[in-house]
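Following up on my earlier thread - several people asked me to post the actual chain instead of describing it. Fair enough. Here it is, all 101 residues.
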Amino acid sequence: MRARILIAEDDTTSRTLLASALTNAGYAATEAPDGESALALLPEGEFDLILTDIRMRRVDGLQVLAAARAMARPPAVILLTGYGSLESAVAALRHGAADYL
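Reply from S.P.:
Thanks for posting it. Predicted structure:
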């Protein structure tokens, strides 16, 4: 059985390239163009991993992380950002992120 990965990223190019690379590596990748879409997809599928951008409009990656952690069987969540800082990395890990890139 292939691992199911939800990719929540508002940058279309980044999301598409990441989904393509993961699909080519044998994973089942589902794309969400924003945090709101990711929240809507969470109950629909049992994801093994969520890759989410931190900085998205309306619903950000930390909100996606919180929703995932509240699930009965929470998937691992890796937060992605192009605007990283020590403070945001510490906050992400304190909120239960599996990793921060």
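The helical segments are 12-24, 35-41, 61-69, 86-94. That should answer part of your original question.
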